[in-house]
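It is worth pausing here to work through a concrete case rather than discussing structure prediction in the abstract. The textbook approach is simple: state the sequence, then state the predicted structure, then interpret. We follow exactly that order.
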Amino acid sequence: MSGANDVERVYSAMEEAAGLLNVPVARDKIWPVLTAYQDALADAVVVFSMAGGRRATELDFSISVPTDHGDPFTTALERGLTEKTNHPVDNLLADLRDGFPLGMYAIDGMVTTGFKKTYASFPTNEPQPLSALLDVPSMPESARANAELFARYGLDKVQMVSVDYPKKQVNLYFSELDMDYLKPEHVTSLSRETGLVEPTDMALDFASGSFAVYPTLGYDSDVVDRITYAVISVDPTLAPTTSEPEVSQLARYATSAPYAYAGENRTLVYGVTLTSKEEYYKLGSYYQITDLQRTLVKAFEALD
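Step two, the predicted structure:
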């Protein structure tokens, strides 16, 4: 019975978060997703994420799934949440599971359309070298094409991989970052070398406190689609922009998003994303957290 209660609880929180953005939640799309993974909900890390400006018309959700619950992509296929396409992207999660130690899975979706992603996270403090991941047969060729470039900027330890099935894209989440490579000159240089926009001064200052950097890669081109610099904090004023309507959107969400750990400050994860055309901002609010997120907040806020 607790699983069903958790579905109702998380769904209600999702509606509350989406309401802050005036985004409707498609119950017919979301309820099956929550039900499929309901046994994981009680102890899951749950994050509701928005983006600023014109992108504030959608809300993403992420839910962690323990490895002993099985491959979440297989669950999604069995429950009809997605369809197999016979594209290499369908095999990536299984290839990672078979070739590497995994500490946790996760799933991701949008409140208007449902399931869209899975994550494979390596054990805490055991990020995998990018060079090892390049041997995975279903890894996009763009990862191999850019590996030397990433390594030159200290991006060589991967903590997590996400797989976006509709877009057929992969995110590589680099961790254990060398803070020297987060200095403005290196962030700017990496943007230039990957053909992305030059970051603003605020973005450069923000990026210097990142706990993760994750490029987005596709299967049809060697081009780096975008790079995101992520900062974890309990500061609701940390948004790396002074532009409207982004500032108001992010501030409202940072101070009002629902969270289930009473007596603590709301844990937030900010992101600044660079594409070939623009710079934009993300904000995720942790509805449920674990001690790992608490430790990260303390570690990175201590850098100030």
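Step three, interpretation. The chain has eleven helices and eleven strands. The chain has a mean pLDDT of 94.
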